[in-house]
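The data are passed on as follows:
___
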Amino acid sequence: MLWVKTFFGILFQTILLGIFLYLPALTLNWPDALLFLSIHFLITILASAYLLIVKPASIEARMNYDSKTQPKEDRLATVLMLSAIIVGLSLAPMDIFHLNLSSSFDGNIKNIGLGFYIFGMLLVMASMNANEFAETTVNIQEERGQKVIDTGIYSMVRHPMYTGFIFFITGVNVWLGTYLSLSLSLIFLALALRSRIIIEEKTLLNDLEGYEDYCKKVKARLIPYLF
């Protein structure tokens, strides 16, 4: 059942991303968007299949969303995070095909953007592989015996999934978007991550045993040796 739910969840997510891209473009003649959606579907399907075999609890955790227990501040952070994705995906085709307010990326820079996106997706999947407690809302999962995760990618940064989001948003907008869509997406994302990390670390420091020691050991939140 979990395999079926995961497959249709990925399919729905890919279709939704396609709607955000193609509807504002008002054309299906956009090969770069098709390539992006194809790569996204392939990476997500393969990575999810691997996790379903070796770490099914990680997939189950990402499917858990309890809005009733989600703090108000965390709801705002979630909205901002979604806005960063939606703004970038929707504004990119609007600017490219209709508004022409800023330039799009081309050449090697554009290709680097696609590489950034792929790297970001791999970081997100690596985070899920290392941390089976990575739910979509901030809460302590006492019933599941949540503990501090300090192995794998979590031995380098405290919030590797958010690092992956940064590469994801940046890469998508460089590959498909413009300077304007990239700038606005990163502004929304910066606001979202700042809010989310503050809420998350406050909760973990107060309620999860060993997290304070982990913060002393792994000082970087998002980028090793920088931040």
